[in-house]
Amino acid sequence: MACPLGGLLVSYFMDRIGRKYTILLTNLLGLLGWLLLATSFLHSDRDLIYAQMLVGRALGGIMIGMFVSPVGVYSAEISLPRIRGRLILGTSIGLAGGILLMYLLGYFIRSNIVLISTISCCYQLAATILVFPMPESPSWLLTKGRDERARKSLRYFRGLPKKEDDYVPEFEDELAHMKATAENSRNTAASESLSQVIRRPEVYKPVLMMTAFFGFQQACGVVVIIVYAVQIAQRAGVSIDPVLVAVMLGVARIIMTFFMSTIFEKWGRKPSGIFSASGMGLCMLLLAAGGWWPDTVGTWHWLPVVCIVAHIVFSTMGMLTLPFFMISEVFPQRARGSASGIAVFFGMILAFIMLKIYPNMEAAMGTANLFAFYAFISFLAAGFIGFFVPETRGRTLEELEEHWRTGKYTRRLTLNNLKEVELHERFLQK
């Protein structure tokens, strides 16, 4: 339950202390949580040990709920459309790497929570230190009226020298456009309350869409497969070490995540999501078939392992990564922090519910029927993505905001448009 709290907290901090310091605060909470776990057995009092471990786990949960939005929003705001997808996916790569690290530690160090927490603490400390030299998001600085700092920050991210001896028209055009957007955000914030802002179509439409997207993500069993990987492997009749299967899932996920930037940019977000949900549904159907017809399909001992690993691969191609990816793209500047926090809050609440009810659902429905249920929801998710999720590839954040406001794009996206975007960004090569 600490994860949803993190989603609410991040919506408050992102707009008030900025993206950089929200990321720093998130890392500090994670560091403190791992420290409490690593030092919990220094006491002999069992009640104190339990309380310290509980607080440490709670801080870790808050950190998980907080880290998704600011990192993605920061990546989206400092980048241009051509490379935005690759930067935002850094969040998914880091998450996949962290889960793989936990799987590996669990495989090799199965009964030493102090050692596991100490190793994780060192990793968290390194991440915290790396935040300090990061410049603040120029978009956020402009909304606070800090134009000079925003100019320096944007020049840094565009690879331009600190001395402004040269005049780069593309840079000045981009900065002027960002200033106009920030000015509009400031005027709206001054004249409208939060309830009025939420009623705007460019705010409530993406909030509803992302909330539904997170709902499908959790209902099709993405997080359940990750968290209950060992138990599901045992139920499915996997003959090898179930913990090793979990490690295989982590390896498959991180390898696939590295390819996702290319897939998202080549295919687009929408086709990737449809393919992902359809593939997940097929994997769940095959697992269900193994339970329905154990004398035929169930004799293929390799099938459960292949289906579980393939499910992770397909989910990484869209359903697992896209919702967290798109919260950094679809919300307008003035509500980006609050709206993304709300979406993550509901996503974490749904994840908590699905994880808590999984054992009861399995007992009531049976493993095979539960897999069939996940397959049905996965196919529904494919239809939802096809009809309701917009394509964001090659679009600026301002164009996406206009789409939600008017229902159409001001610029038709073609192959030539994408080439023009790359030409417009040529000053990055300087």
Q: How would you describe the overall organization of this protein?
A:
The protein is mainly alpha-helical and 430 residues long. The protein folds into two domains: 2-134 and 195-406, MFS general substrate transporter like domains (Growth Hormone, Chain: A, Up-down Bundle), CATH 1.20.1250; 138-194 and 412-429, no CATH class. Helices cover 78% and strands 0% of the residues. It is built from 20 helices and no strands. The chain has helices at 2-17, 19-38, 46-78, 81-108, 113-131, 138-143, 147-157, 169-191, 194-198, 201-219, 222-227, 229-235, 242-267, 269-292, 303-316, 322-326, 336-365, 367-388, 397-406, 415-424. Helix 1 (2-17) crosses helix 3 (46-78), helix 10 packs antiparallel against helix 18 and helix 10 packs across helix 19 (397-406). The longest helix is centred in the first third of the chain and has 33 residues, at 46-78. It is found in: Membrane. InterPro entries: MFS_dom, MFS_sugar_transport-like, MFS_trans_sf, MFS_Trehalose_Transporter, Sugar/inositol_transpt, Sugar_transporter_CS. Keywords: Glycoprotein, Membrane, Transmembrane, Transmembrane helix. The chain crosses the membrane at residues 21-42, 54-75, 87-109, 115-134, 207-230, 242-261, 273-293, 299-327, 339-358, 370-389. Residues 1-393 form the Major facilitator superfamily (MFS) profile domain.
Write down the secondary-structure element order: HHHHHHHHHHHHHHHHHHHH
Total of DSSP H or I helical runs spanning 4+ residues? 20
Q: How much β-strand is present in the residues?
A: under 5%
Oligomer: single chain
Output the CATH homologous superfamily of the largest domain: MFS general substrate transporter like domains
Number of domains as seen in the coordinates: 2
GO molecular function: transmembrane transporter activity
Keywords: Glycoprotein, Membrane, Transmembrane, Transmembrane helix
Protein name: Blast:Facilitated trehalose transporter Tret1
Transmembrane segments: 21-42, 54-75, 87-109, 115-134, 207-230, 242-261, 273-293, 299-327, 339-358, 370-389
